[in-house]
Amino acid sequence: MLPPSLSTVALAVLALAAGSAPAQSPSWSGRVGVATDWLVRGVAYSEGEAAVRSAGIDAYMAGWSLGLGALWLRDYLGERTSGWSLHLGYELPLGEQWQLLADLQHSRYEGGFVLEGYGGRQFGLGLAFGDRWSLSWNVDRTIEPTLAVRSLDFNLRWPLARHVALDLGVGRVLRIEGERYGYGQAGLELHAAGARLRLDRHWVRPAAQNTYGDLARPRWVGSAQWSF
Exposed, middle or buried by CB within 10 Å (0-12, 13-18, 19+), for 228? Predict the structure, then answer.
């Protein structure tokens, strides 16, 4: 279960959204992407020698979003793994620039046994100012209980030029059995006509290496995504 206070806020946001959403036709968008690695909270899930491929489709209507995503990679033991996720989100405007964000997600992984325990339910609640910065609290309830995670993340996106932006992020994770560590990333993004190219440097506090070893070492990640 989610923490009581978090569950209460989540239900309030979704109930308010459902009661205020006018009837209208949804808008659709799709995306495909490729990356050199797949990292989650600073820890690598992929082997780094084969490209990570992704695709997804989303529908938007009156602040609501419903999306389906797919992922293909080789896990850190070299086994072919595929994953999918279904998410439901809502953005509640709090003014001209502020938004309260809520997101529910369900995911599964198949193929290699390494990532099977990471599937499950995720919930996120956040506060954002336009597309400049966001602060979010995330709770992951995984199939394998010892892998369940709670984390707090702050992300900042700052335009440097017309098609160039600086992206920064820091976070803190608290695992159920009490393990804590910090992580972060800094990178540049080039974007134009639906295409995005990124180069990011990821790092993790040394405490994470006690559990994840080389999977938590600092590394560069390059990625490309096309939205349509």
Answer: exposed
- Cβ atoms of residues 137 and 122 within 8 Å: no
The SS3 call for residue 113 is helix
Among residues 23, 21, 49, the alpha carbon closest in space to that of 35 is found at 49
Domain boundaries, the chain: 4-14+27-227
Asked if the model's pLDDT at residue 183 lies above 90, the reply is yes
Q: Which of 30, 37, 204, 13 shows the shortest CA–CA distance to 124? A: 13
- State the Cα–Cα distance between residues 74 and 46, nearest whole angstrom: 6
Confidence of residue 112 (pLDDT cuts 50, 70, 90): confident
- pTM, two decimal places: 0.85
| 46 touches 74 (CB < 8 A) | yes
The C-alpha angle with vertex 18 and arms to 141 and 16, in degrees rounded to 5, equals 85
Going by the DSSP 8-state scheme, the letter that residue 15 receives in this structure is: H
57: tokens are: 């489709």
**Burial call 172-195: b when 16+ CB within 10 Å, e when fewer:** bbebeeeeebbbbbebebebeeee
CATH of domain 4-14+27-227: 2.40.160.40
d(CA 124, CA 35): 24
